[in-house]
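Lab notebook, bench 4. Still working through the backlog of constructs that have no structural model yet. Next entry is a single chain of 220 residues. Request: give me the structure tokens for it.
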Amino acid sequence: MSLLLALLVQVTFPTPMATPTPFPEPTPVLRAPAPFLERLVTVGDRTTRLSLFDNRMAVVAVRENNRQVFLRKLLLDQAEYDIYRAAVRRDLEQVTEGPSSALASDFGQGLIRVTLAPGDTRRMSYSLASVPDLATGRLVATLDDLEQRVSEVSPSHEELRHWEPRVGDVVELYGGQRARVSEVREEGFIFLEHQGTALIEVLSPEQRSTRIERVVSRGP
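Model written out:
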């Protein structure tokens, strides 16, 4: 083969370029819920912690002598969450950071920490024995209201709120009667077979909380 022919072949049929390797998709990073606010109220050996996280979960935990004696959780709906956040922000803007009065540890004290934004955390403390100023009093009242709201939640009712029925679930109705879920419809209607009887009851999603007291066991 002549040199000219070899050059023509090289130009006409170039060596194919390697296909670039695509970069892998980044792995999503799961972030733990961050607390928007925390309050610790200490009276003697008893400490009550109120927490509200940015995923709308509110938690009340009570410890006595370093032992947990009470725990309640409540997932607020978006409207409730927004109302509490707005109230806390409003009252906090009028509170001077730091102790609001001389602390009297014999009567108990409260410590509040609110994270308004990354790097912007406000802290304040107050005495349970002193009369607070107007802004502190409003903030404490808001947190007292949230704490009561969470503390009064029935664990079984909160479980029922997030319950997704499936065939085989056993529930306890108000009055003590138990029933088994025999069918679940797409519209949310469930069919209940009453144990020990031939009665079949149909409940709409709105009727569940008025008829079912708690979920006894989950189906297979």
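Notes after review: Residues 3-9, 99-104 have pLDDT under 50 and may be disordered. The chain is about 25% helix and 35% strand. Flag for follow-up if needed.
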